[in-house]
Amino acid sequence: MRRLLQTIGTRFSQTFVQPTTLEKVPLSTHRSVLALYDLQPAIGAFSYLAPNVTIAGEVTTGSYCAIWYGVVIRGDLNQVSIMNSVVIGERTVIHTATALPNGLPAMVSIGNKTVIQNDCTLYSCTIDDECFIGYKSIILEGAKLESGVVLAPHTVVPPGRLIPANQLWAGNPAQYIRDIEEKDLGQNLYVNQNNILAASMHKYEFLQQNSAYLQKENTQDDIDPEYVEASLRIEEVVKDTMPL
Question: Are 157 and 143 in contact (CB under 8 A)?
């Protein structure tokens, strides 16, 4: 047993490398979720918030949302309500007005399974379920998108515009292009689920403790700890019997 412990200690000392320098990592003071006065954001279960997002004020999200890098959601002037399985792409900005002159609600409401791609701007608007907002689109105050609406990239929806369900719109200002087909809706849901799956993988990387062991397959060492000791004993016997 003494020889076995000596062998283990020798191997450990040979393989363990002491770091020569300590890398200095700058401390980030950024807070992803912050209350404003008495307005506290509420984040749903299993949602992924990228480390550099900013969510402030009266913001609520549902479960399984993916809010990617650089997103800003401001609920300082009015409420922002985000339902379940919503994907919000990088650098998108969502904010609200205090009130609208036409009396419509000034909050932002985003329905279930909606995808908002990168660099979009949403301002006091309503988006129903399973909509798809293309890159760099702008939706202005009082606008409403009914269920299944698709906006092409760089679309600008003017204030107060109502876009009926299951239609594709594009341009500045937004104009009707065609009705949405069943295959289009399936593609939108495919993009939504892929983003949520990718978000779950990113979430693992930002845990306080590394989770790589969860992805590792079990070996004989994991299953039977006594197997390790037996293997070392066999190695020692073989070494002793080998000629110098």
Answer: yes
The DSSP string of 61-107 is E-SS-EE-TT-EEEEEEEEEEE-TT-EE-TT-EEE--S--TT----S
Choose among 169, 145, 143, 141: nearest CA to 155.
169
- Report d(CA 20, CA 118) in Å as an integer: 42
Tell me the pLDDT tens digit for each residue of 53-98.
999 999 999 999 999 999 999 999 999 999 999 999 999 999 999 9
* 164, HSE (Cβ side, Cα atoms, 13 Å): 6
Mean pLDDT on 114-126:
96
Q: How far apart are CA 166 and CA 155, in angstroms?
A: 16
Asked if residues 146 and 117 have their Cβ atoms less than 8 Å apart, the reply is no
Residue 209: both structure tokens together: 């403790």
Q: Is 188 helix (H, G, I), strand (E, B) or coil?
A: helix
- Cα–Cα distance, 73 to 38 (Å, whole number): 17
* CA 25 – CA 109 distance, rounded (Å): 39
pLDDT for the residue numbered 210: 59
- CA 120 vs CA 24, 92, 114, 236: distances in Å: 36, 5, 13, 65
Mutual angle of helices 2-15 and 225-241, in 10-degree steps: 100
What DSSP letter does each residue of 111-168 carry, written as one string?
Answer: -TT-EE-TT-EEES-EE-TT-EE-TT-EE-TT-EE-TT-EE-TT-EEPTT-EE-SSEE
pTM, whole model, 2 decimals?
0.74
Give the residue carrying structure tokens 């984040």: 43
